[in-house]
Specification:
With about 200 residues, the protein is of the alpha+beta class. The protein is built from 5 helices and 10 strands, in the order ααααββββββββββα.
Amino acid sequence: MEINQDILKKYASGQCSETDRHLVEKWLNDDSWHSIAESTAVNEEVGSAIWNKITTDATHNHKINWGKVTAAAAVVFVIGFSIFHFSHPTLDNHTFSNTSVDNSKFFTEDHYDVQLSKNSTARIDLINKKLTFSGDFIIKPKRDFELLDNNHNILVFKAGKEYFVSDSPDFGKIVAFQKSDLAFLPSNMQIKIREQFQSI
């Protein structure tokens, strides 16, 4: 039996016999054009042209459009860079000065608070991790960081703690210690520090 439009219509509507169903399924699995029983014969060139067109269209759909891929990668890169750059707080570099001879002076920054005693200056450079100062000051970090003083000592500051920093000749060197450690200093130094910083 030859495959024709009537058998295909019956097969599609589910009205063909079991034998016809097997025959149609066998025909569907066959790649050749020889089993078509139409009044006009199909030219082999026409069949080849149809299959070539189908194959070309199928492979064309799978080709990668590198322009779109490049554009998408650029967008992802820009978004990723923006998120990374703007989500991390930028470090700062500030110079503080208190020329008053009577009172201490308080400064608030993004990463720390600073209270300078009278006639004191401090330059805190978180970018290069350097500390330059004269006089006394109290620093309260809002995040952990380390600074290198003029004598190349590494000073470690922890968030939430308060530190007293001084280059006073009374100490003989640059000192930095937690405010809670003031109780262990000699009483004359405790009095001097309390006079400079009324908040202690």
